[in-house]
Amino acid sequence: MATTFKTLVLDKDVANTRTMLHEAIPLTGTIVSGTYSDENIKNYAHGMFQSVYDYPYLSSSANHIFDLTVGYSSTSALNDAASVQNTKKINIYNQMAQVLVGYNETGNIREFDRDGNFAAGGDKLKECLFINFSRLLTKDEIKKGSFALTALTGGTPVAPTGAPTIEDQGAGAAGGGGGGGGGIRSSLFEFSSCRRNRSGFTLLSGWYCCPYSICF
């Protein structure tokens, strides 16, 4: 039977270790290019968004990858009673904006800002394409400095005439972007420009892209 005992010192004899696990998840063009005859893209009767899967969505092996939708501000030039689903597109924009950028000092929903500096004013993003990534991909967050998006801007997938890449290179070193109602945001820029990111959600307006993360 032991007769000698050692007193444990918390800061010397007890150690906490932490291992960071990162997944590399490439979303290739085959998912959205028609490889599955568009059977991996689910359309809904309400017409407000599309869901994209990595296999035909009726397959038990299919995983939800992201949703695509479009929205615009009530102050946008596209706001017209004659526009298709006009009210729905404004509602989509407002829903995204109130969660991700919040309200201003007068209680009105902010419009997305090009550089994220609401105090300084500046250009607003009034017409946006929203890419909502599934929880399967984002989990807690996307690692800053690891996000890149290449899009075909001309030609065909076989013979593209333009495929610029926008990314968040340098976001980790820069500490990400500003905070918003939904979490931390950071800007994506075309390759060779200044960049930043942390994301579970991406919005695009022209070639400017600003991803946001929702904190769970």
> What spatial form do the alpha-carbon principal axes imply?
extended
Order of helices and strands: HEEEHEEEHEEEEHEEEEE
Number of helices: 4
Q: How many domains would you count in the coordinates? A: 1
Q: Which band does the percent of strand residues land in? A: 25-35%
Flag low-confidence runs. Answer: 192-199, 205-216
Instruction: Describe the sheet with the most strands.
Output: 6 strands, antiparallel
- What is the SS-derived class? alpha+beta
Briefly characterize the structure.
By secondary structure, the protein is an alpha+beta fold. The chain has one domain. It contains four helices and 15 strands.
Overview of the molecule:
Helix content is 12%, strand content 25%. It has one domain. The termini are far apart. It has a 6-stranded antiparallel beta sheet. A 3-stranded antiparallel beta sheet has the order 7-10-13, with no helix packed on it. Strands 4-5 form a two-stranded antiparallel ribbon. It contains 4 helices and 15 strands. A hairpin with a 2-residue loop joins strand 14 and strand 15. It is extended, with a radius of gyration of 22 Å. It is an alpha+beta fold and 216 residues long.
Topology:
Layout: H1 10-13, E1 41-43, E2 50-53, E3 64-72, H2 86-100, E4 112-113, E5 124-125, E6 127-133, H3 135-138, E7 148-150, E8 154-155, E9 160-162, E10 165-167, H4 171-174, E11 179-180, E12 183-184, E13 189-190, E14 201-205, E15 208-212
Antiparallel strand pairs: 1-2, 2-3, 3-6, 4-5, 6-14, 7-10, 8-9, 10-13, 11-12, 14-15
Key words describing this protein structure:
4 helices; 6-stranded antiparallel β-sheet; 3-stranded antiparallel β-sheet; disordered C terminus; 216 residues; 15 strands; alpha+beta
